[in-house]
Write the C-alpha cells for this entry.
Amino acid sequence: MGFKCGIVGLPNVGKSTLFNALTQTAAAQAANYPFCTIEPNVGEVAVPDPRLEILSKAAKSAQIVPTRISFVDIAGLVRGASKGEGLGNQFLGNIREVDAIVHVLRCFEDGDITHVEGKIDPVADADTVDTELMLADLDSLEKRIVPLEKKAKNGDKEAIALAAIMNKALVLLREGKPARLAKIEPDEQSAFEQLGLITSKPVLYVANVDEASAATGNAFSARVQEKAKAEGAECVVFSARIESEIAVLPPEERADFLEAVGLPEAGLDRMIRAGYALLGLITYFTVGPKETRAWTIVKGTKAPKAAGVIHTDFEKGFIRAETTAYDDYVAAGGEAGAKEAGKMRLEGKDYVVKDGDILMFRFAN
C-alpha cells in the first residue's frame, strides 16, 4: 500500500533542497534555475515514531522496521502551466498521480537566488499555483460535463448522479475555489475521487524560511500560516537549508545540532508526520523478538483489511486479532504482562483498528 505526497511550488522555492534532505541523497538536483528537476524524483522516507523504540525495548526485538511514505519532487510550475507553459503539461500529469500535495512556499530573502516572479510574496506564489491547478481542473470538467448532461437529460441515472457531483466542483472552481471544498456525501466519495481533480487533493503548506527564522518563523511564514488557517489546511515552518545540513550528520550528532540552532526536533520529522496525517493514515504495530514493525493503514480500516497489508492470505483467512492498546502494552511491560492484566483482547472482523494497536492475527491457511 503506497502513499505519495507530491512536492510542488514555483521554481527556486526550495523544493529540490527539501527533497534531497528528505531522502538524504543528491538524487534531485538543487540548482539556481527553473526546471532543474525535469523527471519527478521519488524518495521513500521512514515516518518518525518514538513508540517503535519503546515497544522494541519491551519485547527485546532484534530490529525495528518503521512504516514509510513516499515524496515526489515535481518540476516547478510557472504562470500559464494550465495552458502548457513551461513544463505545464508534464507538471499537471505528475501531480495527478499523487495522493496529497506538499506546497513549498519561499519565505526568505536571498539576492543570490532568483525568484521567477521577481519578488518575495509567498501568498501570491500560492495563489499562482492554486490558480493554475484550478484552471486545469475547470478545463477538464467543462470538457466532460457537456456530453454527460446530454445523457442525463435522456434519463441515464448514472449520468444524472455523476453530473450532480461534477457540478458541485464546477461551482467552486468557477468561483476560484478548490474542488476539495465541495460538500461530497459519503456515497458520492468514490465517484468524486475518480474525477481525478488536482484541487480535490489535501494540501500541506511548507513555509521555507531562512536559517535565522527556523525556530520562530518570520513575517512571510506568518502570512502562510494565516492562509492555511483560513482554508482549514496545515502548515509547517522550517528551513530547508538547515534540514539539508541535519540530513548528512551522523545520528548521534543531530540532537546537539538541533539544540544549537534552537529547534526541539527536525522540521522534516514534523513535515513527514504532517504528510502522514494529511492522508488520513494511522499506524498499528506487530511486536516480537524478531522485530518491532509499524504498518500503515487508512483511518477507519477494519481488522481483516489491516491484516491484508501484511499479506493477502491474512485477510482471506482472517479469524480474529489479538489486540492490545499501545498504552496498555507499555504499562504492562510487554505482551506477557498485558495478557496477565487482562488487557489483551480478541477482536473480530468488524473491529476498526485504532492508531497504536499492537496486533497478532490468527488466520486459516
The two ends are 23 Å apart (CA to CA). Residues 203 and 307 are 29 Å apart (CA to CA). Confidence is low (pLDDT under 50) at residues 25-38. DSSP finds 14 helices and twelve strands in the chain.
